[in-house]
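Recall the central idea of this unit: under ordinary conditions, the amino acid sequence of a chain determines the structure it adopts. In this exercise we apply that idea directly, starting from the sequence alone.
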Amino acid sequence: MPDDNSFVKEQLNSFGDGKILVVDANGIDTVALLGDMIAEAGVKNGWSGIVINGYIRDIDIVKTLDIGVQALGTVPVKSEKKNQGTLGGEISFGGLTFKPGNYIYADNNGLLLSNTELDLS
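Accordingly, the structure predicted from this sequence is:
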């Protein structure tokens, strides 16, 4: 469900091993799927980034954390907690298809996906 962040919270509270969590909220702009406390859990558990096809909140705190976050924007409303949604598999949005094992490179200008690790030196 695009208005439920239960699985976002669950994943970021598990060991991330430098991975990036990709979330498709179908661009919903009525609730935030990420706030400062869940983002802080991601930092604590070794996640390197979060990409959300949806909105986040607490941006002033989130942008100071040692984790990359890409989202469509901000909204101050908390999401539902109904343990609904799916985990794993391919996710497509914004003209991109994210597959498990992809390498994601991001900055303030956008995202780049690759099937192999790129030499950025």
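The chain has three helices and ten strands.
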